[in-house]
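in:
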């Protein structure tokens, strides 16, 4: 989708999109002579301009018929929050409508450059689709809309879009692609290759450790998960040095289980296909790193993706096995389906040893229990630092990648003590997301600020929203990008 900004409406054929805030129909002035007729039709449709309400009409425009889409933004919603929804809803409505060009006219409304830019942002995010495996799409299912022109925003919107939001669209798109691809296509090796291809020319540095390299280092927990699969594990390292020389970096660490069968503690068949997106945390880290590089963020950030496939097999690890982690601590593997925390344990140790980060933020589709707690609305946030937690909650609100803070504490930590090793990889059923977080915390070294985002309910959505279609949401990219903008670039 091409997003363009202009001072006035172009000539020729296009669908016109007009936002209407509640009962205030001032924006209809843009319709000139058709204003009365459209307004009367809105009355007959009982259109009240509420958020997400839509009226589609055709008006006579100098002898040709023009499609007009009136989009309600609700009363009292500020342009900043209505903007992405407006762009996203317009794009969704018109994408396969037969129209080639849409003009979203914001003239006369109080949209500043950023709000207008975010109309384009929402439209671009919502237009993303992945038709690679659909060879039999009917003509009327194929997208027709090629360009969205946004008029208004008092100048500067185009520049704002290119500098701030277009890079985030690229990052989110990469994440969605990685998450959408099935596990026979994206596995550790191809994950690395796909990211490498996607970030060419961005200035990101990429490095990948293979099994031999990780064996030499002693990453027994990550490799224990991978050993049942014929797909070799990888540790992907992405570096962005946009900040001052020598500044301690912030580290993002993602769980990248390219398929999670559960291993020997195998999952039930029903719904197991969903576990192709068990690499959503790693996908978000890769997408966020791409976004930061493309917008040349003034920050030093390192992104780590722990990439494995969790399979049963003759060489798979067994319940009861004891593995030695990179940190030297030992783990009794009670349940091979609690594999994400094993991968993260070695990944966070690796990043602390090699990059001395001040702050670590890990993202993982870690537990089914977080879905029981928070449903699909929020990801769970766990942190050893109140200030970091506060900043992330704020970035979550600003970006729409919402977080809800969950507790940590010694009584939960005790639940993962093991009689044979330093710890076991599962606690009791109760508090399952918390004991998973406690497990990761055992690998966080003194003085390092750490936050863990359990996004098991957020990587994939069974229903569409204003900025994404059903499927991969791209959750986490905007959260990390906004955190960097708020905290590291100020
Ligand atoms: N990848 C799953 C978590 C998950 C479950 C994500 C459902 C999305 C939907 C994770 O590896 C897992 O299997 N966790 C187990 C942990 C248990 C064995 C302690 C779980 O949540 O059941
Ligand atoms: Mn699992
Ligand atoms: Zn998993």
């Amino acid at each position: 989708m091409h997003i363009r900004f202009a001072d006035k409406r172009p000539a020729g054929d296009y669908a016109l999109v007009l936002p209407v805030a509640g009962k205030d129909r001032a924006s209809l002035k843009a319709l000139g002579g058709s204003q009365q007729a459209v307004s009367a039709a809105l009355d007959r449709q009982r259109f009240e301009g509420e958020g997400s309400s839509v009226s589609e009409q055709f008006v006579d425009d100098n002898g040709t018929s023009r499609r007009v889409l009136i989009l309600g933004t609700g009363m009292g919603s500020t342009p900043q929050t209505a903007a992405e929804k407006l762009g996203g809803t317009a794009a969704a409505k018109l994408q396969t409508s037969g129209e080639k060009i849409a003009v979203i006219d914001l003239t006369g409304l109080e949209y500043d450059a950023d709000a207008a830019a975010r109309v384009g942002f929402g439209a671009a995010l919502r237009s993303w689709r992945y038709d690679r495996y659909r060879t039999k799409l009917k003509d009327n299912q194929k997208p027709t809309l090629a360009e969205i022109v946004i008029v208004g925003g008092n100048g500067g919107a185009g520049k704002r879009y290119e500098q701030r939001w277009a890079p985030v669209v690229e990052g989110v798109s990469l994440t969605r692609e990685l998450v959408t691809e099935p596990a026979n296509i994206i596995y550790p090796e191809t994950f690395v290759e796909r990211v490498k291809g996607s970030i060419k020319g961005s200035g990101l540095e990429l490095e990948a450790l293979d099994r031999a390299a990780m064996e030499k280092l002693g990453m027994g927990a990550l490799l224990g998960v991978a050993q049942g699969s014929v797909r070799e594990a990888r540790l992907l390292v992405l570096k962005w040095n946009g900040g001052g020389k020598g500044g301690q970096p912030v580290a993002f660490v993602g769980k990248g289980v390219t398929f999670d069968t559960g291993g020997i503690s195998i999952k039930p068949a029903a719904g197991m296909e969903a576990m192709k997106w068990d690499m959503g945390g790693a996908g978000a880290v890769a997408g966020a790193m791409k976004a930061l590089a493309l917008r040349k963020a003034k920050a030093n950030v390192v992104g780590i993706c722990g990439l494995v496939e969790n399979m049963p097999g003759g060489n798979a690890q067994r319940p009861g096995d004891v593995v030695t982690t990179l940190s030297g601590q030992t783990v009794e593997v009670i349940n091979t389906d609690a594999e994400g925390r094993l991968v993260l344990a070695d990944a966070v140790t690796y990043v602390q040893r090699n990059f001395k980060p001040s702050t670590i933020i890990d993202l993982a589709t870690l537990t089914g229990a977080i879905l029981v707690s928070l449903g699909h609305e929020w990801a769970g946030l766990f942190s050893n630092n109140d200030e970091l937690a506060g900043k992330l909650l704020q970035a979550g609100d600003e970006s729409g990648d919402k977080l809800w803070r969950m507790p940590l504490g010694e009584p939960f930590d005790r639940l993962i003590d093991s009689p044979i090793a330093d710890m076991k990889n599962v606690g009791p059923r109760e508090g399952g997301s918390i004991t998973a977080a406690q497990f990761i915390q055992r690998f966080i070294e003194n003085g390092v600020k750490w936050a863990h985002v359990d996004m098991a309910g957020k990587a994939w959505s069974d229903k569409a929203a204003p900025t994404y279609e059903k499927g991969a949401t791209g959750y986490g990219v905007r959260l990390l990008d906004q955190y960097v903008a708020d905290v590291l670039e100020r």
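note: Residues 260, 262, 337, 339 surround manganese (II) ion (ligand 2) (CB under 6 Å).
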